[in-house]
Design a protein that fits this description.
Number of domains: 2
Keywords: Electron transport, Flavoprotein, FMN, Phosphoprotein, Transport
GO cellular component, one term: plasma membrane
Structural class: alpha+beta
Order of helices and strands: HHHEEEEEHEEHHEEEEEHEEHEHHEEE
Largest sheet: 6 strands, antiparallel
Strand content: 25-35%
Shape: elongated
Strand order of the largest sheet: 12-11-10-9-8-15
GO molecular function: electron transfer activity; FMN binding
Helix content: 25-40%
InterPro entries: FMN-bd, Ion_transpt_RnfG/RsxG
Protein name: FMN-binding protein
Low-confidence stretches: 18-36, 373-414
Number of strands: 18
């Protein structure tokens, strides 16, 4: 009898001791849940004392669990258990801790099958440190040299697919967090640079130009970029100003329409390109026809124009008129709306365009290379046996493809 009492007493003392360290609720929850791993959660959110799973109805498909984190007194953030389906070698299982104000507190890779020496770098301390402390509160998140204050994680050299897999899952997590914290904005969809289109819209060889992208700063009281106006690039020919390239987005009948306009210093249109759209063939798709885009040459987006000054006309004649496409009113209205928003943005831009500190050098060739690196070769070939860098070719990648022909192998150098 005394032996049984001693065992019970020891067990109670043990429970109380552990409870004093980890919290009583964690002890009993841990007894009923094999999946409860407070130590792992603490690895990605060191300030956390209490970790409690919450139920969210509209949870993203890639997110397994959302853990609410408390410091013992106050709610300070969340831990997200998520799986990226975009890894080079398969799924990448992640734990990510983020504070209520959008600072990444930590990352842990629970499982991955990436290439050793390349994508497998994702679970190293160096990569994790390149993600930790990144500020994602503004909805801006990218991969590059690791400008943490501007939402940039450090990319893995030679492993673009793996980097993008982690990056895209972080975007999913940030979007989810934006529904839980009013201090975090959802991730804005990034507009491509369409670097190859610069060759079409500029009259000379690209090597003769330099490019500077306008960057919004914290000191601005009124934002220039919005859902319509995505990018302003200053173009110089030699040392002299040449033009501005304005990237716009319109909401067409078939979805998003991406436009590029080349403007002079007073915001008259030199040329216009429709670089992406899903409008109806024979109707709204007429926007990419040269007869339509030529109408934009000479269009005046000057700051002195009143807002909503662009007009739709069956027979456009004025310097602020564009064509109303027969049978494509929605598409026509979409283009009109984006141009009117462009005027509003240019009114603000005109006040600060002379401040060179607002511009950052843009290397279009580098952007073009980044686009190539992100190409998914597995989507092009259904019979890929292997995809890896070859020995003594650190900067080259090869795709080895088995064809359905006897004794035939094709090696494509990328």
């Amino acid at each position: 009898m005394n032996k049984i009492k001693a065992i019970i007493t020891f067990a109670l003392v043990l429970i109380v001791s552990v409870a004093s360290i980890y919290g009583l609720n964690k002890v009993f929850l841990g007894l009923n849940s094999e999946d409860y791993v407070p130590s792992q959660y603490a690895e990605v959110f060191a300030e956390g004392k209490e970790f409690n799973e919450i139920d969210i109805k509209d949870k993203a498909e890639t997110i397994n669990k959302i853990i609410k984190v408390s410091d013992g007194s106050n709610h300070i953030g969340y831990v997200f258990d998520a799986i990226s389906k975009e890894g080079f070698g398969g799924d990448i299982h992640l734990l990510v801790g983020i504070s209520n104000d959008g600072i990444i507190k930590g990352l842990k890779v629970l499982e991955q099958s990436e290439t050793e020496g390349y994508g497998a770098f994702v679970e190293t301390e160096e990569f994790i440190n390149g993600v930790k402390d990144v500020n994602v509160s503004t909805g801006k998140i990218s991969a590059g040299e690791g400008n943490k204050e501007n939402g940039q994680i450090t990319a893995i050299s030679g492993a673009t697919v793996t980097t993008n897999a982690v990056l895209n899952e972080l975007k999913n997590i940030v979007n989810q967090l934006s529904t839980l914290s009013n201090k975090v904005k959802p991730v804005a969809e990034e507009t491509p640079y369409y670097e190859t289109k610069y060759k079409e819209i500029l009259p000379n060889n690209l090597s003769e130009y330099t490019f500077e992208e306008f960057q919004e700063s914290a000191k601005q009281t009124d934002s220039i970029y919005n859902e319509f106006v995505k990018r302003i690039v200053k173009v110089k020919y030699g040392k002299n100003f040449d033009s501005y390239i304005l990237q716009l987005t319109a909401k067409g009948y078939g979805g998003k329409i991406d436009l590029m306009l080349r403007l002079n210093y007073e915001y008259r249109v030199f040329d216009m390109l429709v670089v992406s759209h899903n409008e109806t063939e024979g109707l709204g798709a007429y926007i990419e026809d040269k007869h339509y885009t030529n109408i934009f040459k000479g269009l005046n987006l000057d700051k002195n124009f009143l807002v909503n000054s662009i007009k739709l006309r069956k027979n456009p004649k004025g310097e602020k008129d564009i064509l109303l496409i027969s049978g494509a009113t929605v598409t026509s209205n979409a283009i009109q709306d984006s141009l009117n928003e462009a005027i509003n943005a240019l009114v603000k831009f005109d006040k600060i365009k002379s401040d060179n500190s607002n511009f950052k050098k843009l290397e279009l060739n580098k952007k073009s290379e980044e686009s190539k690196q992100g190409y998914n070769h597995k989507e092009k070939f259904n019979t890929i046996d292997d995809l890896k860098p070859l020995d003594k070719a650190a900067n080259l990648k090869f795709v080895v493809v088995s064809l359905a022909y006897k004794y035939a192998n094709v090696v494509e150098k990328i």
